[in-house]
Design a protein that fits this description.
The structure is a single chain. The chain has two domains: about 35 residues, no CATH class; about 150 residues, Orthogonal Bundle (Arp2/3 complex 21 kDa subunit ARPC3), CATH 1.10.1760. Helices cover about 55% and strands about 5% of the residues. It contains nine helices and two strands, in the order αββαααααααα. The protein has a two-stranded antiparallel ribbon with strand order 1-2. Helix 7 runs antiparallel to helix 8. The protein is globular.
């Protein structure tokens, strides 16, 4: 139709500046499109700032208490899902070693757990981003549980005691906080590049 309009001397209407989200199908079989916001590119400095901020939160005395979530694991999952080319398994391994040194745990315990966590998040990142943020929680919870199970298996393997089933509340709380963490970490990308009369915010 656009070529026909050009041939007749008419200019086609400009395409709307709206991003159409992934195609979905409801129960009736009708095809729907989920609206998707256009985001600014994330700055690498912001990624590293959030990772180190999460590390500091985990280093606090209450950072490893139950049911306080593993903030570093939550932020790693987020960036593995949204920026898998910038934050990968190497980053997760290094931050895991830092946690091991601080906690005095078996060297490599958290490094292994975070590496498995990162691998799972990167493998599923396309599937996770397909869904709205609230629907992403059932995918985030198993990833956090796998990381905890890996760390627990290493601890028990060297003769450590089983901490009890309340130990896994850490992953449950982290999954519950996933929508809040996603909103906070995406907030700088939603800001307009510059303000003017038509975009006062």
């Amino acid at each position: 139709m656009s070529r026909l309009s050009e041939w007749l001397g008419q200019r086609p209407a400009p395409a709307p500046l709206v991003s159409r989200g992934p195609e979905t199908v409801d129960l009736s079989g009708a095809r729907l499109w989920r609206p998707e916001a256009l985001l600014r590119p994330v700055k690498p400095a912001f990624i590293w700032f959030t990772l180190f901020a999460a590390l500091v939160l985990d280093l606090f005395p209450w950072g490893r208490s139950v049911p306080a979530p593993d903030f570093l694991a939550l932020v790693l999952v987020f960036w593995n899902v949204h920026q898998p080319r910038r934050v990968g398994m190497t980053t997760a391994f290094v931050f895991g070693l830092l946690i091991d040194v601080h906690d005095g745990a078996l060297f490599g315990q958290h490094a292994l757990a975070y590496t498995l966590l990162s691998y799972g998040a990167i493998t599923l990142h396309r599937r996770i981003r397909w869904f709205p943020v609230l629907t992403q929680t059932p995918y985030v919870l198993p990833l956090l549980l796998v990381a905890q199970l890996a760390s627990l298996a290493v601890r028990i393997g060297v003769g450590g005691p089983f901490p009890g089933w309340s130990y896994f509340l850490q992953s449950v709380v982290g999954a519950v906080l996933w929508p809040v963490a996603s909103w906070c970490l995406l907030l700088p990308q939603r800001r307009p590049i510059r303000r003017d009369a038509t975009r006062p915010l």
